[in-house]
Amino acid sequence: MTFSETILSWYRENKRELPWRDTKDPYRIWLSEIILQQTRIAQGTPYYEKFLANFPTIEHLSNATEAEVLKLWQGLGYYSRARNLHATSKTVVQKYGGKFPSNYIELMGLKGIGDYTASAIASICFDEPRAVVDGNVYRVLSRYFGVEIPINSTKGVKYFKALAQSVMDAEHIGDYNQGTMEFGAVQCVPKSPDCPRCPLNKSCLALQKNLVDRLPVKMGRIKVRKRYFNYLVVMDRAGKTQLRQRLGKGIWENLYEFPKLDSDRELKQKQVESSLSEVLQLEEPPLVYQYGKGQVVHKLSHLHLHTKFWVVETCAELKNGVALSDLEHYPVPVLVANFISSFKNHYF
User: Fold this and answer.
1) CATH classification for the domain delimited by 3-214, as one of 3.40.50.300, 3.20.20.190, 1.10.3720.10, 1.10.340.30
2) 8 A C-beta contact, residue 61 and residue 10
3) pTM over 0.85
4) How far is CA 58 from CA 28, 118, 206, 262, in A?
């Protein structure tokens, strides 16, 4: 059997039962693909089901507020995906009457949809012969064909896309694409794949050349930076606090958080106390103490956030204060959400 025939045969026998597998509804396929970008299936599946329960159609999603979408997305990270999801739902409803474009070119014109997602929707929903290339596909192709070109280089992206197109099964493109991704996720896994039981092992160049552990090749990793966040949890006599919305571009754009002191090194209590006036306007000296011990380290792909939460108690009543019981209605970064959960239990 050819490469594509083997993939299809394996997929039909081994595919996992997933909630988006037995549908060609472009809304559901699009939703699953956006959620599963940079997210494991085990983590993403509950979000997929939660989004469908709240927004069963693209019209429901387009009518939601951004805050509602971000709140539902909370904990998945890479919040630009949620903002783009919301923006694209409005475009599809307003420009296309609620029906997704049925071809790759028009799909590529939608916000947050790149080559991979456009190829997935076009092939699975509309049988357009477009090969998908995601992390799993890169791994399968690089190993089977023994390709040592870095997958995250300009040359590598073009090479693997062309290779994927050349070996795909155009007549069964939806199953083939899902099969190749599934094969990489289940059989040709990143570490210690079960090569003896692999149906492609007799013709896999990486196995023949002892390159399985070295492929795919990826160029140097991004240097991780450190930043230090000191969140100021202001509490007044009425048990209300302050939240501020993050404006401007950034990974947490339009999410809410407590006022904070941002620095390039760890701040001690006296430094926090002397810097309060930079971000807070309080009429009298407050009582300041750290909640919990040490730092919470929140790791992003390019950034490690060393975070402390400081309770700032004031006798003055806060203007536009937010009750602790209402904090759960605001979309916040997951590290803030975790603090709120712990603090509410402690405070009450």
Assistant:
1) 1.10.340.30
2) no
3) no
4) 9, 17, 43, 39
* 225-347 fold: Nucleoside Triphosphate Pyrophosphohydrolase (3.90.79)
Residue ranges of the domains in the chain? Answer: 3-214, 225-347
Residues designated as active site: 33
Which residues contact residue 221 at a Cβ distance below 8 angstroms, ignoring those fewer than 6 apart?
A: none
Tokens at 207, concatenated: 């196995």
Model pLDDT, residue 25: 97
Q: The tokens of 257 are what?
A: 């958080």
pLDDT in tens, 170-181: 999 999 999 999
User: CA 85 to CA 64: how far, in whole Å?
Assistant: 11
First-to-final CA distance of the chain: 66
Please tell me the distance from the alpha carbon of residue 51 to that of residue 196, in angstroms, as a whole number.
40
Query: How far out from the chain centre does Cα 317 lie?
Result: 38
